[in-house]
Automatic annotation (TrEMBL):
GO terms for molecular function: endonuclease activity. This is DsDNA-specific endonuclease/ATPase MutS2. Residues 530-545 have a biased composition (Polar residues). The lineage of its organism: Bacteria, Bacillati, Bacillota, Bacilli, Bacillales. InterPro entries: DNA_mismatch_repair_MutS_C (IPR000432), DNA_mismatch_repair_MutS_core (IPR007696), DNA_mismatch_repair_MutS_sf (IPR036187), MutS (IPR045076), MutS2 (IPR005747), P-loop_NTPase (IPR027417). Residues 403-419 form the DNA mismatch repair proteins mutS family domain.
Length: 680
């Protein structure tokens, strides 16, 4: 996965949280190295084993995972010729005992936790190695019985120490009166007497030190010198024998290198698995079903770093549509919705349970591409829009059917008209490539595009216009708005300013004029080419099926094949004049076929102009409101339908037409006509 994606979606925070739940250095290392995977089967297996471990924890199980204290050094130095110390072997012995304890514990859990138990069952006991270490070392010290030679040496040392003690008692009694203090001191590892300086010649021996004031000299009596020399020799023998014992233990340990490595790695994996399980328990994470077809269906999803403060998110994509356009007010939760989907997907692909309701489904993606934020931190020398475009270029280059694309605030940072057009073009390209796309926007044109285009769907973040508070609930299948007018009015903006603002917004003068002029110019050019071309029989570009069923969708304005016949020229001239007259008057009738320039699509007028100049247009089976200034006549209704044609056949379902006819004759209790939200 792209590192920018991981950073933007706060994946590294998840890594830290999982690592904090691990006990061992290997468990923490696995957590910090955790990355999203791409294999569906492997991911599902990891999720199910994490769920199994989490279930054990939820039932109060306390799994005795070894801590691996000191094992990092042992694993690093094993086989290098390094001589392990008593402390190293104490750590190794504790590790081996803990492994045996874990294996015994998990043996009794094989029925309720088969996967976790299999990990423990794969470990090695190494009883012979543990027994030899425990025989030789205890409490960090080599035992007297570790070897016969060591037993003999230490017995001699005990005899020497006893003789020295008796000799010291005799010397203390003899020299007590000339001693500075009645204690025995040690200097340079040898026993000395603290004698007053003026009496130094009364004690036979070597002066090894004197006090800072010079009033005391520390003398090793001659009677102790031979005992000290004997003890030093014995200590040398002891040290050599201890090194020999440690060497033998090191050699024995190296013969178990494979088994030790296996146990260590298994403990690290188990510790990481339990860390994932512990983290899942803290955020109420659950297992989901995984697919590679882009299908996502989640109920009550939470962003794991927001906790219970987040309103649960219900989210669906990938069945009837692969691109979702989310609209709504600022601070309404649109960006959080994007980040929640992105981060939960990364977590799921890392084998982590996710905080969602039961029965969730999620898709695996080879890449998650994001365009969230203003990009200034990445491209400080570029504008927000430039950084956005550079980012989108990279996304478009890599996008395919296994890519999840998350885009925040499409068409922002530049001229709205150009931004909308560019955004729609990019959405079309991403859809053509088969990518799964979730994008947020404020622009109505993009909402209309999503409503009219197969494979796209609208969604909105709910907003309370009374309290001016976002509700953070996502409603799929409904387009939202920015609520700027409601917020401004609630905060005290004058009504006449609000009304004027609505009027200006509805007109969309520049964009509609541009679309109209472009359409007229193209039609005039087409007419000019037609008048100069070779004579060919007249042929309409409408297919027979379209002529029979004029409500079928037509992707482009009508174009007539080239011919120089007078009949065709006259017909085209007539169409041009009629279209120009209608455009100038901006008068549309029910059944007119109209062209929507910014969508580059045609639709059929289903509702005449309302008080605000909005026209109801049937576009790909859905009714939407578009201001008249954004429409140009494509084909007049009287050219499409016979006189007195019942247009309800076009705009209403057969069931509703029957109901309406019945209701016109008599009252029927409980009978009602159901309309989709956009037609109500």
């Amino acid at each position: 996965m792209n590192e920018n994606t991981l950073r933007t979606l706060n994946y590294f925070e998840i890594q830290k949280n999982v690592a904090s739940c691990a006990r061992s250095y290997l468990g923490k290392r696995h957590a910090h190295n955790m990355k999203p995977m791409n294999d569906v089967h492997w991911i599902q297996t990891r999720l199910e084993e994490t769920a199994e471990a989490a279930l054990m924890l939820r039932y109060g199980a306390s799994i005795p995972i070894p801590s691996l204290d000191g094992m990092e050094t042992i694993m690093d130095l094993l086989g290098t010729g390094y001589l392990f110390s008593e402390r190293d072997f104490s750590h190794l012995a504790q590790f081996l005992r803990s492994c045996a304890q874990l294996m015994k514990y998990m043996e009794g859990k094989s029925e309720i936790a088969p996967t976790v138990s299999r990990y423990a069952a794969s470990m090695m006991l190494m009883e012979s190695l543990l027994s030899e270490i425990e025989r030789s070392i205890h409490n960090g010290r080599i035992q007297d019985l570790a070897s016969k030679e060591l037993t003999r040496i230490r017995k001699k040392m005990m005899v020497n120490e006893e003789r020295m003690k008796r000799k010291l008692d005799s010397l203390l009694g003899k020299h007590r009166s000339i001693m500075q203090e009645n204690v025995i001191s040690q200097r340079h590892g040898r026993t000395v007497l603290p004698i007053k300086k003026e009496f130094r010649k009364l004690v036979k021996g070597s002066v090894l030190d004197e006090s800072g004031s010079g009033q005391t000299v520390y003398i090793e009596p001659v009677e102790l010198m031979s005992l000290h020399s004997e003890l030093a020799a014995l200590q040398g023998d002891e040290s050599r024998e201890e090194m020999k014992i440690l060497g033998e233990l090191t050699t024995l340990t190296e013969s178990y290198s494979r088994e030790i490595a296996l146990n260590t790695e298994t403990v690290g994996i188990l510790d990481f698995l339990l860390a994932k399980a512990k983290y899942a328990v803290t955020m109420d994470g659950r297992v989901v079903q995984v697919n590679a077809e882009g299908r996502v269906q989640l109920q009550r999803a939470h962003h794991p770093l927001m906790g219970e403060s987040m309103v649960p998110l219900d989210f669906t994509i990938g069945t009837n549509y692969r691109s979702l356009i989310i609209t709504g007010p600022n601070t309404g939760g649109k960006t959080i919705a994007l980040k929640t989907l992105g981060l939960l997907t990364l977590m799921m692909q890392s084998g982590l349970l996710v905080p969602v309701g039961e029965g969730g489904t999620m898709s695996v993606y080879s890449e998650i591409a994001v365009d969230i934020g203003d990009g200034q931190s990445m491209e400080q020398a570029l504008s927000t829009f430039s950084a956005h475009i550079r980012n989108m270029i990279g996304i478009l280059e890599q996008a395919n059917s296994s890519t999840l694309v998350l885009i925040d605030e499409m068409a922002s940072g530049t001229d709205p008209g150009e931004g909308v057009g560019l955004s729609i073009a990019m959405l079309e390209e991403l859809h053509r490539r088969g990518a799964t796309v979730v994008a947020t926007t404020h622009f109505g044109e993009i909402k209309h595009f999503a409503a009219a285009t197969p494979g796209f769907e609208n969604a909105r973040m709910e907003f309370d216009t009374v309290t001016l508070q976002p509700l953070y609930r996502l409603r799929i299948g409904e387009a939202g708005q920015s609520y700027a007018y409601a917020i401004a009015l609630k905060l005290g903006m004058a009504q006449h300013i609000i009304d004027r603002s609505k009027s200006i917004s509805d007109l969309g003068i520049q964009q509609s004029n541009s679309s109209t002029e472009k359409w007229i110019t193209e039609l005039e050019e087409d007419h000019h080419i037609t008048s100069q071309s070779e004579q060919k029989p007249y042929k309409s570009s409408l297919s027979p099926s379209t002529e029979k069923h004029p409500v079928s969708d037509i992707a482009k304005p009508i174009v007539l094949t080239n011919t120089s016949s007078q009949a065709e020229s006259a017909l085209k001239s007539k169409k041009l004049k009629e279209s120009e007259a209608t455009v100038k008057a901006n008068v549309f009738h029910k059944g007119d076929r109209v062209y929507i320039g910014y969508l580059d699509q045609t639709g059929t007028v289903c509702d005449v102009e309302d008080a605000r100049g909005n026209i109801g247009v049937m576009l790909r089976g859905r009714k939407i409101k578009i201001h008249k200034k954004r429409l140009t006549l494509h084909i007049a209704a009287d050219q499409l339908y016979p006189d007195n044609y019942d247009l309800d056949i076009v705009f209403e379902s057969k069931v509703n037409r029957k109901k309406r006819k019945l209701m016109g004759r008599k009252h029927v209790e409980g009978l009602q006509i159901e309309l989709p939200p956009e037609q109500q």
